[in-house]
Design brief:
Radius of gyration: 22 Å
Strand order of the largest sheet: 4-10-9-8-7-5-6
Bound molecules: pyridoxal-5'-phosphate
Largest sheet: 7 strands, mixed
CATH topology of the largest domain: Aspartate Aminotransferase, domain 2
CATH class of the largest domain: Alpha Beta
Number of helices: 16
Distance between the termini: 40 Å
CATH superfamily of the largest domain: Type I PLP-dependent aspartate aminotransferase-like (Major domain)
Strand content: 15-25%
CATH architecture of the largest domain: 3-Layer(aba) Sandwich
Length: about 475
């Protein structure tokens, strides 16, 4: 029994027998040893045996305010008592309205219209559907395709999965939604291989990568392309920040071809980069933002697609309806939690805290560059990827078999056993990903570095 009388054996058995974990390979040897997390406090989580771990991934890029914040739980309870549920289908409720106005006040440009969803994939799905209908409504019905970047993850609904650039995630579900095209991402560490042009500066590579979008639009035909989906800092592949000038060039290209720029900020919004939205960090104004995760710090699920005035225009008058919605989109409890979460952000100046500590986080992780296995440390704000390589000089990466042995066979479990919850990811080249709660500071960064140092050293010795 745990302190709160949970029967450890029976709950572990229930998970084994009945719970279907997401993105989980059941055939692996440790499938019967599922970590069971029972509570969280600040930057730490505790498993069913009472063992403590530093939450180096904020759950899943979610728990910005940290765990165990009573005021967020109370905001949920108060709203549930008052009005637990009502849909946003032709009706409204105050918290959704207040939250929409608050978000509109913080987005760049005139992104003033907020369409709530239950999560990030639905927000991405919503953005593509709006892009298609918008162009039909303004007399450009053939504009329906989307462009996105290689290895980028945009969610699992069919549309969002079609936009996703990870072939292995898509293959089991083919045929997907047609009309989705890939372009290179902003992985400057591998710029030589990707572009075939050796030695480009970040600026030159940014320009080259943005121009691939223009080329894709030309190849597909500008009158068929509706939108480009990009994250401010691409997560999958291991935190690719935009090179200087990338977003400005992308904005120019989208304007030139009348293609909508969708900033998928499911991870990057709400302080992850030290700003509310990515546009503020990298100085651009998209046509739509998709967001979720940190909006409520995970105390209740919620996502949103936020659109510029121009995109709402066709729906303002006449009989044009955006025939799209989700029962739980804008859920009153989630909206109340989001409001309380944003209050907390302001009161504790979480954005200022991240901005102030970002250089310390980076410098702490960069200490790991003295290890032979650490090829690159990259990211922004509280969002970093550490790329692992076999040879630092040549940047040679691991074979599929080595990567499997290293990441799945050893690293994920070793890091967790050592008290750090984070992600060892091989959707692109092998990386360790870190995105701690925004309340973290130098003490937690040191703890992350020390655990990583020890486990990465062991990993190298095992190779
Ligand atoms: C950039 C991006 N878009 C979309 C999604 C999908 O969000 P959700 O899992 O809430 O559907 C994710 C999830 O991690 C994401 O990182």
């Amino acid at each position: 029994m745990t302190q709160d009388n949970t029967d450890v054996a029976s709950v572990l058995k229930a998970a084994q027998d009945h719970l279907w974990l997401h993105f989980t390979r059941y055939g692996s040897a440790d499938a019967t040893d599922t970590p069971m997390i029972v509570r969280g406090e600040g930057a730490y989580i505790y498993d069913i045996h009472g063992k403590r771990y530093l939450d180096g991934l904020a759950g899943l890029f979610v728990v910005q305010a940290g765990h165990g914040r009573a005021e967020l739980a109370e905001a949920a309870a108060e709203q549930a008592r008052k009005l637990a549920f009502f849909p946003l289908w032709s009706y409204a409720h105050p918290k959704a309205a207040e939250l929409a106005a608050r978000l509109a006040g913080q987005t760049p440009g005139d992104l003033n219209r907020v369409f709530f969803t239950s999560g990030g994939g639905e927000a991405v799905e919503t953005a593509w559907k709006l892009a298609k209908q918008y162009f039909k409504a303004v007399g450009k019905p053939s504009k329906h395709k989307v462009i996105s970047r290689e290895i980028a993850y945009h969610g699992t609904p069919h549309g969002a999965l079609s936009i996703t650039g990870i072939p292995a995630f898509k293959q089991p579900f083919e045929p997907l939604v047609p009309g989705s095209v890939r372009v290179p991402n902003t992985n400057h560490y591998r710029a030589d291989e990707i572009s075939g042009v050796p030695g480009m500066t970040p600026e030159q590579y940014g320009r080259w990568a943005a121009d691939r979008v223009a080329r894709a639009i030309e190849m597909e035909g500008p009158d068929t392309v509706a939108a480009v989906f990009v994250e401010p800092v691409q997560n999958a592949g291991g935190c690719f920040p935009p090179p200087p000038g990338y977003f400005q060039r992308l904005r120019e290209i989208c304007d030139r071809y009348d293609v909508l720029l969708v900033s998928d900020e499911v991870i990057c919004a709400f302080g992850r980069l030290g700003t509310m939205f990515g546009g503020e960090k990298f100085d651009y104004v998209p046509d739509m933002i998709t967001c979720a995760k940190g909006l409520t710090s995970g105390y209740s699920p919620m996502g949103a697609m936020i659109a510029g005035e121009r995109l709402f225009e066709p729906f303002k008058n006449g009989d044009e309806t955006f025939s799209h919605g989700y029962t739980f989109g804008g859920h009153p409890v989630s909206a109340a939690v989001a409001m309380a979460n944003l209050d907390l952000f302001e009161r504790e100046d979480l954005l200022g805290h991240v901005t102030k500590n970002e250089p310390v986080f980076r410098a702490t992780l960069e200490r790991l560059l003295d290890l032979p296995i650490v090829g690159d440390v990259r990211g922004a704000g509280y969002f970093y990827g550490i790329e692992l390589v076999k040879d630092k000089t040549t940047k040679e990466t691991f074979t599929a078999e080595e990567s499997e042995r290293l990441l799945r066979g050893f690293m994920s479990k070793a890091l967790f056993d050592a008290g750090l919850y984070c992600r060892a990811d091989d959707r692109g080249d092998p990386v360790i990903q870190l995105a701690p709660p925004l309340i973290c500071g130098p003490a937690e960064f040191d703890e992350i570095e020390s655990i990583l140092r020890s486990v990465l050293t062991q990993a190298w010795d095992r190779l």
